[in-house]
Write a structure and sequence with these properties.
The strands form two sheets. The chain has a five-stranded mixed sheet with strand order 2-1-3-4-5, with helices on both faces. Strands 6-7 form a two-stranded antiparallel ribbon. Helix 5 crosses helix 6, helix 7 crosses helix 9 and helix 9 runs antiparallel to helix 10. The chain starts with a helix and ends in an 11-residue tail after the last helix. With about 400 residues, it is α/β, with parallel strands linked by helices. About 40% of the residues are buried. The chain has two domains: about 150 residues, abc type-2 transporter like domain (abc type-2 transporter like fold, 3-Layer(aba) Sandwich), CATH 3.40.1710.10; about 200 residues, no CATH class.
């Protein structure tokens, strides 16, 4: 009696601790090619004895200020940068304005205009990911300012200037940060997509297990026990394949109700910002259904321990590899690998595209639909192949009736 619960309970506690804490403890040291747009709009003439204008020099310094394996600076035009912000392909952007060199030239004149670099955030990619990109961009911008300052301080034009002017020339560039993509006030700072998907996954997971247990109870393969009352229904002679088909059909029906109630709670009662409601409803239903069908297939294959297996697959492994709270580019490689097939990452990408990125296919919606289709196909094949194999081997679930 003691051995099995102690071993299983201890393993579950250990694995959950390793999985969850292992994914969040080292985002800075685990950084792997975080994509940030780098835009140079500077159209000014180079300074004397310089081959490039200051905008080109600044972008070179910025690109070399971070290790290439940690940050992926994408050199884009302004239109392309805005498009990638609006499709979730970058976590932010650093922009050199068109008058950058001209503003630096003006510092020594009668009407100085301090040059400015602009950091654009992408809150739709999650508050932490956007914040990390902003901090990296701000550090890189200040590094570029210091490099330009050294260049100016070496200029003979500054001979005889006062200490206040020389202090300005030492760090001449101002850095401003502002949102690069507008977000509604009821979007949870870019986290509403993650929590909405979490609700759909939990609805599918819990609903699937409730149906699994209820059907087994009704068919006489499990006891009914409520408080002190206990009962066992007469066992219905039904094959494993027929039982799985029944459970999956019920899952398809119940998922309509659970998905509708999730949407009513989030949209109607709480006022979550959302658009493309018919598409959101369809994608939400298919997401919840795919999880529920997966639960039924795993339970049919593994029996009682299937609920632990499905919990690890749909919850324990899926949460830290979803890329929703901490970007996949800031977690250890094991979680990036999980993100290629774990369902929550695919569902978050699809829901983000619908909620934040105008339902663009290239923002993750196409991948979300594709992975739902692949997941359902694999689930059906795995579930029915296993139950058919058990039936053909004569491994029936019939048990002796209590006397």
């Amino acid at each position: 009696m003691w051995l099995a619960p102690a071993v299983l309970g201890g393993l579950v506690a250990l694995l959950l601790s390793l999985l969850y804490m292992g994914g969040i403890l080292t985002p800075d040291s685990s950084l792997h090619r975080l994509p940030i747009a780098l835009v140079n709009q500077d159209s000014g003439e180079p300074l004397p004895e310089a081959r490039q204008n200051l905008g080109a020099q600044a972008t070179e310094r910025i690109a070399s200020s971070t290790a290439p394996e940690s940050v992926q600076w994408r050199r884009l035009g302004m239109a392309a940068a805005k498009d990638q912000l609006a499709s979730g392909k970058v976590y932010g952007a650093l922009v050199v304005p068109a008058d950058f060199t001209a503003a630096v030239r003006s510092l020594g004149g009668d009407r100085p205009s301090r040059p400015t670099l602009t950091v654009l955030t992408n809150p739709a990619m999650g508050s932490l990911g956007s914040s990390m990109a902003a901090k990296i961009s701000e550090r890189a911008a200040h590094s570029a300012s210091a490099g330009i300052g050294k260049q100016l301080m070496a200029s003979p034009r500054l001979a005889g200037t006062d200490s206040a002017a020389r202090l300005l020339f030492a760090d001449p560039v101002a850095v401003q940060t502002k949102p690069g993509l507008a977000m509604g006030g009821h979007s949870g700072l870019g986290l509403s997509a993650f929590y909405y998907v979490l609700l759909l996954v939990l609805a599918g997971f819990l609903g699937g297990n409730i149906i699994h247990n209820s059907v087994d109870t009704a068919l006489g393969y499990a006891d009914v026990e409520i408080g002190p009352w206990h009962r066992r229904h007469p066992t219905v002679p039904i094959s494993r394949t027929q039982t799985l088909l029944l459970k999956m059909a019920m899952t398809a029906g119940v998922s309509v109700l659970t998905t509708a109630l999730v949407m009513v709670a989030c949209l109607a009662l709480l006022g979550m910002d959302a658009a493309h409601l018919p598409l959101l409803a369809l994608f939400s239903y298919c997401s919840c259904l795919s999880v529920g069908l997966g639960v039924q297939a795993i339970n049919a294959a593994f029996g009682n321990i299937g609920q632990i297996v499905s919990m690890f697959f749909f919850i324990a492994l899926a949460l830290p590899s979803s890329g929703a709270t901490i970007p996949l580019e800031a977690v250890p490689g094991f979680y990036r690998f999980l993100g290629t097939f774990e369902p929550m990452h695919q569902l978050v990408a699809g829901i983000r595209a619908i909620l934040y990125f105008d339902a663009r296919a290239d923002a993750g919606l196409a991948r979300g639909w594709t992975m739902i289709g692949v997941g359902v196909a694999v689930t059906l094949a795995f579930g029915f192949l296993m139950t058919r194999y058990y039936d053909r081997k004569g491994l029936h679930r019939m048990v002796p009736q209590p006397g």
